[in-house]
Write a structure and sequence with these properties.
Layout (H helix, E strand, L loop, with lengths): L1 H9 L3 H17 L3 H10 L6 H17 L4 H15 L2 H17 L5 H18 L5 H5 L2 H16 L15 H6 L8 H13 L6
Helix pairs in contact: 1-2, 2-3, 2-4, 3-4, 4-5, 4-6, 5-6, 6-7, 6-9, 7-9
Length: 203
């Protein structure tokens, strides 16, 4: 049982117990045992690792969803934690949680979040060796993305395939404008405008 498994990890050194406890949280959520999941999360040792903090934030989002709580705020926290971890797989998982929360709230921006998730999934897939691609594409993550594609379409938002690709900040832009931070569409558009006017003497 979940309790017996938890007791067996209780005596394990805290740094080594983290991963088994994380797996127990996931198992409790699969079984719909929100109370057990909360207990296991509370037992997790504090961490200074950005990656572990992101994993925990994603679990918090799953727990909030299972408990029927306010998922949007928790999903946004998971996104911020995944960005700090600088881990694309965790960022993808956080994007999926955010998109689910936006769909729950009938927020049309879910389509843009899903578009970003699909783009990241494509980038991650490109890194996988050819012989492992079939197994990679069989992950539950792909099924979640497919389900979210249907959900966003029902919201009335454009499907990811219909959304124009976002602007990307080039290495050349980083070199020319090192003091201007940011990768959002607005920032990239600003840099593109600067590129057009910089050589000009116009005022």
């Amino acid at each position: 049982s979940l309790e017996a498994a938890h007791e067996s990890f209780a005596s394990v050194e805290s740094t080594k117990a983290s991963q088994p406890l994380v797996e127990l949280v996931r198992l409790a959520l699969v079984e719909g045992d929100v109370q057990a999941a909360r207990k296991f999360i509370a037992a997790l040792p504090e961490t200074e690792s950005p990656k572990q903090a992101a994993e925990l934030a994603i679990l918090d989002a799953d727990l909030e969803r299972a408990a029927g709580g306010d998922t949007l705020l928790v999903a946004q926290r998971a996104m911020a934690a995944a960005a700090r971890a600088e881990d694309d797989e965790l960022r993808l998982e956080a994007l999926i949680r955010l998109c689910k929360a936006q769909c729950d709230a009938s927020d049309l921006s879910a389509a843009h979040t899903l578009h970003e998730a699909f783009a990241l999934e494509d980038a991650l897939t490109a890194r996988v060796p050819d012989e492992a691609k079939d197994a990679w594409r069989g992950r539950p993550t792909r099924l979640e993305l497919s389900e979210l594609d249907s959900r966003t379409a029902r919201l009335g938002g454009r499907r990811p395939s219909q959304i124009p690709a976002p602007r990307t900040r080039s290495i050349e832009m980083d070199r020319r404008y090192p003091v201007i931070a940011g990768t959002s569409d607005r920032t990239v558009h600003l840099l593109e405008v600067l590129d057009k006017v910089a050589p000009s003497d116009a005022t």
